[in-house]
Amino acid sequence: MRVGNDHRGRLGPTGHVKKLIDKPKGQAGQSELKGGYSLQQAMGLAGNNRKYNAFRMIARRYTNQYLDTEKTLKEQNKLTVTLLLLYAQRKHEFLAKFCDNWPFYDFIACYLRNHVQYTKKRHPNTDDLEIDDSDLSDGEIDDMLNDDGATSTPTSRRKRHRHAHDSDDSETDEERSP
Length: 178
Prior knowledge:
This protein is mainly α. Helix content is about 45%, strand content about 5%. It has helices at about 40, 50-65, 80-90, 100-120, 140-145, 155-165, 175; strands at about 10, 15-20. Strands 1-2 form a two-stranded antiparallel sheet. It is globular, with a radius of gyration of 26 Å. It starts with 8 loop residues before the first strand and ends with a helix.
């Protein structure tokens, strides 16, 4: 991921070269005992939860908007990831002080890895979630999209309709037929 050497910098507003903050060794989120580091501390935000949470919010928003959240970072299109890193760094001045926008890269790598693991645990057989919609009309599919959680097959709608009329004792079963 590293582009260029560790000692490059950018011109600051006064025309002086500003040293960029290099990525620490190890993996973000791992304990120091395992050779990792705290992303919040490495970014210099140990005492600033508000700014760190804003960074996390931005990173999650861009990840959900521009990347495939069913794939880890290594499985993403490399050009898309590079453009996202550049876009975030240019749009948010705070990120410009980090060499190659490593905090953003490390955060989205952890975020996607965790999201993929969570999805696999929650839906171990994602293929089973597919619905055979070949026998459903467009109206029935719209009903499924707009339903508040109850099943909405034509049969279940008829049953709900029938149960609603069951409490009315003035009709006989023959009179209730559709």
